[in-house]
Amino acid sequence: MQIGVLRETADAERRVAATPETVKKLIGLGASVAVESGAGAGANISDAAFSEAGATVTDRKAVVSGSELLFAVQGPDAKDLKGAKAGATLAAILAPFADRARIDGYAKAGLTTLAMEFMPRITRAQSMDVLSSQSNLAGYKSVIDAAESYGRAFPMMMTAAGTISAARVFVMGVGVAGLQAIATARRLGALVSATDVRAATKEQIESLGAKAIFVENVKGIEGEGTGGYATEMSDEYKAAQAALVSSHIARQDIVITTALIPGRPAPRLITDAQIASMKPGSVIVDLAVESGGNVEGAVAGQSVIVHGVTIIGHKNVPSRLAADASALYARNLFNFINAFWDKDAKAPAFAADDEIVKGVKLTEGGAVVHERLAN
Ligand code: NAD
């Protein structure tokens, strides 16, 4: 069977869904691989490097029409996959809640689609978890972006001309991105504090050498829903959290927000009044800006200055580290395919009752089949 690797068409998407390393591994399984010319350019992978790894480098039409399985980072429109084989499978980040019509388009085109970001958070699927691999890099990059905008140093420095005090960094939302943001800010020498609604993160924050800022003794404090994700909090909790954050935030130089709730808009964590309480020159990075934003006034794709505070709202942060993000994403995809590989058929066999397959499959046989997308 042929696996096709598509060139990304979305704005400012620099990642690619395969690397020479994963191409070799896929060929090792017995597949042939066709890569669309220019697919790796944004991640500094040349067509020649893909050819040397054993792939056929060709145009989009040939990749689409000749492949049983298509790899992409972001899901292209179904019309961009015209000419695909009947029943071909597309594995990509499909963002069904952001663009349901595109998913209906896949169903109509008879494509089987697998949403990599729906990978269940179970031990067996850890090496296939694209949300983790990409969020980790986004968390790192958020601190680097903040440091670049911040007109001061991060570490404390004792010099002959006097002492520079360490930057105070506050991380809100301590999932995969937040943990990496804490670790990165610590490595740069900042004084780091962090908060989350999930009580389990307290220990994780402290184990990284940061201070945990937590609402205590309030109803509805558990905050942990299924799969380790956060739940929407009670009004009482939200009020207590706002008061705690208000007093803390006024003393911070850098704030990184990463809070998400699956299938819902991102929770609003920082108000305009709280921004006004910060020192001029402070920097906020809103990693949730594309999901509605944690920060009042944050604009997706822009840096804005509000009350003298820079609010950074980069879109698609993992793509800003395209080489590493592609390497990890490509390995996630390979690990996924490898786990379902049928050695005799030399093709993946996605058993319909498998927990992972049920978790990621959005469309099949002309219909939308995922329970979270039932109308
Ligand atoms: P996420 O991206 O969904 O959310 C980011 C963080 O924001 C979470 O920690 C969440 O609790 C927090 N948050 C939500 N609302 C908030 C609010 N109002 N105030 C403050 N914080 C808020 O999270 P994630 O990075 O996907 O990680 C979620 C959990 O899943 C973590 O515990 C992670 O370790 C776990 N995980 C498990 C596996 C696995 O077992 N295979 C894989 C990846 C992640």
UniProtKB/TrEMBL annotation:
GO biological process: NADPH regeneration
Any Pfam family the entry gives: AlaDh_PNT_C
Keywords attached to this entry: NAD, NADP, Nucleotide-binding, Oxidoreductase, Translocase
PROSITE patterns on file: ALADH_PNT_2 (PS00837)
GO terms assigned for molecular function: NADP binding; oxidoreductase activity; proton-translocating NAD(P)+ transhydrogenase activity
Ranges of residues in domain Alanine dehydrogenase/pyridine nucleotide transhydrogenase NAD(H)-binding: 147-313
EC number assigned by the record: 7.1.1.1
GO cellular component annotations of the record: plasma membrane
Domain Alanine dehydrogenase/pyridine nucleotide transhydrogenase N-terminal: 4-138
UniProt cross-references to InterPro entries, sorted A to Z: Ala_DH/PNT_CS2, AlaDH/PNT_N, AlaDH/PNT_NAD(H)-bd, NAD(P)-bd_dom_sf
Gene3D superfamilies reported in the protein's UniProt record: NAD(P)-binding Rossmann-like Domain
Known catalytic reactions: NAD(+) + NADPH + H(+)(in) = NADH + NADP(+) + H(+)(out)
Alphabetized SMART domains for the sequence: AlaDh_PNT_C (SM01002), AlaDh_PNT_N (SM01003)
Record-stated family: Belongs to the AlaDH/PNT family.
Function statement: The transhydrogenation between NADH and NADP is coupled to respiration and ATP hydrolysis and functions as a proton pump across the membrane.
The protein's name in its UniProt record: NAD(P) transhydrogenase subunit alpha part 1
Source species of the chain: Glacieibacterium arshaanense
